[in-house]
């Protein structure tokens, strides 16, 4: 039986625990709140997210002792939003992940350092790239809970690790495939959240599907330009880990980033939009990181710039959309 640590108690962590435990891996599940651990042990579901999903406690062991959870596992999945990762694992010694395979389920960056999660783990915890995987692909936790057909891509420089993790995930409703473009899919997963916010903002302002389709196609060019500058490598950007993930986030009713953007377009302040959502829209943090990182690369990124200006420079969404309207082809 594989022993897997899952760090995080949100929707995606809950969906991953469902998939992996149903396949009979032993899950050591770290949740921040002691009350949530107690609730899970008593009622067999997460009280806050996807609470319709029941767990078999023979396979799911919830704790809030992080060091014990990591020590007991061979694989460690990070599934808290990027902005909270540093804090979540800060209590661990720098050697805590030695010999483990780290799997980032996060579609976000470390805000203080504007770096990818895998780069952060390598720099601060000495986890070599060969011991890292990322989970990508268009997959909403809510649809996993409903057992709707879904597809995941496991990125790693080590395809043996990627293949093994795919085996742990595959079931009746999840297909999983390996890919060697670890950094490319990690960056793309971050950027699609920014684009989804832009789509939501446009929708909130009253733009229609025609404009959104042009936004998404321009976004693919923007993502390609950025990836070519930062991580040049041949990649098939119409694959489901790239275009597929962008489409689900840009169009789905379940998208946190689109929902957040929609509120901004309708006139909510950042604070009030965050307050209304029980969930985290990663794109809010990601746009600052990508915007700042791009000061080095100087790639033409009109959509990222527009979202940054709206969220951080308080420029009116209508003004920024007018600029994009003129720029798009
Ligand atoms: N939800 C999905 O469908 C989905 C799918 C793929 C990837 N992801 C990625 O998974 C990661 C986790 O997102 P999610 O959707 O599970 O989150 P969520 O929005 O469902 O839940 C928020 C999470 O943030 C945690 N949190 C909130 N405030 C915190 C704080 N101050 N300190 C520490 N933790 C705090 C909560 O405990 C909870 O775990 C994100 O990077 C997201 O992009 C999500
Ligand atoms: O669509 P969002 O904004 O909820 O993000 C969740 C996942 O990244 C979808 O794959």
Task: Please give a handful of descriptors for the protein shown.
329 residues, alpha/beta, Rossmann fold, N-(1-d-carboxylethyl)-l-norvaline Dehydrogenase, domain 2, two-stranded antiparallel sheet, globular, binds nicotinamide-adenine-dinucleotide
User: Termini distance?
Assistant: 53 Å
In percent, how helical is the residue content?
40-55%
Q: How many domains, as an integer?
A: 2
**Fourth-level CATH superfamily of the largest domain:** NAD(P)-binding Rossmann-like Domain
Q: Which value, in Å, is the CA radius of gyration?
A: 19 Å
CATH architecture of the largest domain: 3-Layer(aba) Sandwich
Question: What is the third-level CATH name, the topology of the largest domain?
Answer: Rossmann fold
Bound molecules: nicotinamide-adenine-dinucleotide, SN-glycerol-3-phosphate
Structural class: alpha/beta
| Strand runs, count | 10
Identify the strand order in the major beta sheet: 3-2-1-4-5-8-9-10
Q: Summarize the helix and strand pattern as letters.
A: EHEHEHEHEEEHEHEHEHHHHHHHH
CATH class term of the largest domain: Alpha Beta
SSE layout and pairing:
Elements lengths: L2 E5 L3 H12 L3 E5 L3 H10 L16 E4 L2 H6 L3 E4 L3 H8 L11 E4 L4 E2 L4 E2 H9 L6 E5 L4 H5 L4 E7 L2 H11 L4 E6 L2 H24 L3 H22 L9 H12 L4 H10 L4 H7 L6 H15 L4 H11 L4 H11 L2
Parallel strand pairs: 1-2, 1-4, 2-3, 4-5, 5-8, 9-10
Antiparallel strand pairs: 6-7, 8-9
Helix pairs in contact: 8-9, 8-10, 8-11, 8-13, 8-14, 13-14, 14-15
This protein binds nicotinamide-adenine-dinucleotide and SN-glycerol-3-phosphate.
Nicotinamide-adenine-dinucleotide binds next to helix 1 and helix 4.
């Amino acid at each position: 039986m594989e022993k897997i640590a899952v760090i995080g108690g949100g929707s995606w962590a809950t969906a991953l625990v469902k998939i992996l435990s149903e396949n009979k891996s032993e899950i050591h599940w770290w949740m921040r709140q002691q009350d949530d651990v107690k609730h899970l042990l008593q009622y067999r579901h997460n009280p806050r997210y996807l609470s319709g999903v029941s767990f078999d406690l023979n396979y799911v062991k919830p704790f809030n002792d992080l060091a014990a959870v990591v020590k007991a596992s061979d694989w460690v999945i990070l599934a808290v939003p990027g902005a909270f990762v540093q804090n979540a694992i800060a209590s661990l010694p720098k050697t805590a992940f030695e010999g483990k395979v780290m799997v980032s389920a996060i579609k976000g960056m470390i805000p203080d350092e504007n770096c990818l999660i895998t780069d952060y783990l390598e720099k601060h915890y000495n986890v070599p790239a060969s011991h890292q995987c990322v989970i990508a692909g268009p997959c909403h936790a809510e649809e996993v809970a409903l057992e709707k057909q879904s597809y995941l891509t496991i990125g790693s420089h080590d395809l043996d690790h990627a293949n093994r993790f795919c085996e742990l995930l595959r079931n009746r409703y999840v297909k999983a495939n390996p890919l060697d473009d670890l950094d490319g899919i990690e960056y793309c997963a971050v950027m699609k959240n920014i684009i989804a916010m832009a789509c939501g903002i446009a929708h909130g302002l009253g733009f229609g599907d025609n404009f959104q389709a042009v936004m998404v196609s321009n976004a693919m060019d923007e993502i390609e330009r950025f990836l070519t500058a930062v991580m040049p490598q041949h990649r098939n950007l119409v694959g489901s880990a790239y275009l597929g993930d962008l489409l689900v986030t840009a169009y789905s009713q379940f998208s946190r980033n689109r929902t957040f953007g929609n509120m901004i377009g309708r006139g909510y302040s950042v604070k009030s939009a965050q307050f209304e959502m029980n969930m985290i829209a990663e794109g809010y943090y990601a746009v600052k990181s990508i915007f700042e990182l791009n000061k080095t690369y100087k790639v033409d990124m009109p959509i990222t710039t527009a979202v940054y200006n709206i969220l951080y420079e308080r420029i009116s969404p209508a003004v920024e959309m007018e600029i994009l309207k003129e720029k798009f082809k």
